[in-house]
Amino acid sequence: MNRYFYYNIVLVSLLNLMLFVPYLLIQHRYEGSIMSMACAAIVGSILALLFTHVMKTYPGKGLPEILTLFFPKFLAVPFMLGCAFMWLTAASIVLYTYSVLINRFFNPDTSSIIVLTFMACVCLYGATRSMFTVIVVMEVILVVCTPFILFVLFKAVRSPLLDWDAIRTVAHYWNRLPKVKPFASSLFVFTGYMNFFMFNRLNSPNFRIRFRWFIPVFGSLILITSFFVPIGFHGTDGSADYLYIWSVTSDSLVMSYGFIERVIFVFLLLYLMLSLMFATIGWHLAMELVKSCLPQPKKPVDPAKTPRSNWVIVCVFVVMTITYAYTFNEKQNLEITSYWIVLRACVEIASVLFLFALSLAGSGKRKRLET
Q1: Which long-range contacts (CB under 8 A, 24 or more apart) does 65-73 make?
Q2: Distance CA 47, CA 55 (A)
Q3: Closest Cα to residue 55, out of 1, 10, 7?
Q4: 141, 138, 145: which is closest to 284 by C-alpha?
Q5: Do the record's keywords include Repeat (predicted)?
Q6: Consecutive 10-residue runs of the chain (371 residues): their mean pLDDT?
Q7: Are 232 and 48 in contact (CB under 8 A)?
Q8: Do the Cβ atoms of 96 and 333 come closer than 8 Å?
Q9: How far apart are CA 358 and CA 340, in angstroms?
């Protein structure tokens, strides 16, 4: 199961390129983004290490099972619903943002709501599958997409169009104090481990996380690339003019490989699969948390037949996402997302520290029972 843990790390790290993380960092490029990225790498790595201790303490248990060991259900339910809301909003924001991207770069004549509806239907079917099915599908998609995305990033770094003087100019502002928004945005890159609060149900009792050095190394490399490469292509001031900065950056690349010339089309198709996978996982985890709040017997991790409650809960998520797209425009979505990223960072830090404290209490209780 080690590889599934790191698949989540890779998925979330790569996905930040097509969200507002690079945009928010570039907006604060003179005001502490570099120091914020450094602090986020340290904090994110520490949180990941603390989280692996939680998984080791409670093998085979998800967040609901851990909470029920310490608290009555009426206290555990609000916490689980809050976590479900965070995963739900993350998936919905990604779907809405990417539907606008597809509408803008592929087919401007089609309404983004129609594109969002089709994407939501795909995620509806995927999110209702069993947890084991979801994690296996994630493996297939990442094995297919990740090499191509890393190749595109490598070509961008090696491109002769990259202006290293612009990168060095921004790098001179490394000593500015970190700010909340760029710190929270940077921290998002390291948060793939959060998915295992539920996927831990699939782990065996002897499960151990190895190669934990991969988390800070890979996350930092992706974070540095997503921040500095657009600045090198569009300049220190011009890079702040684009909302979907990596879409424009990928359109600056040209490849001479058969019929592939404009990189943006390949790049967007690859990220379409990653976005659908991320939204599927987010809705699936939110669905599992909501089901854990209901008075029903515990279901197997990989049931032979999809429960009807899965369809009902995820259909509600679809309706909420489409309603959100109808209610808010693109500018409002950017503002909401910037505040949501800060809220998510606070919730993540508090949740990991809280569950780490519970794991210490659980370890002490088990040692006293053994003696």
Answers
A1: 65/201, 66/355, 66/358, 69/358, 69/362, 70/358, 70/361, 70/362, 73/293
A2: 13
A3: 1
A4: 138
A5: no
A6: 84 84 90 92 92 84 87 88 92 90 81 90 92 90 91 86 90 90 92 86 77 88 92 89 85 71 82 92 92 73 75 94 91 89 92 89 54 42
A7: no
A8: yes
A9: 26
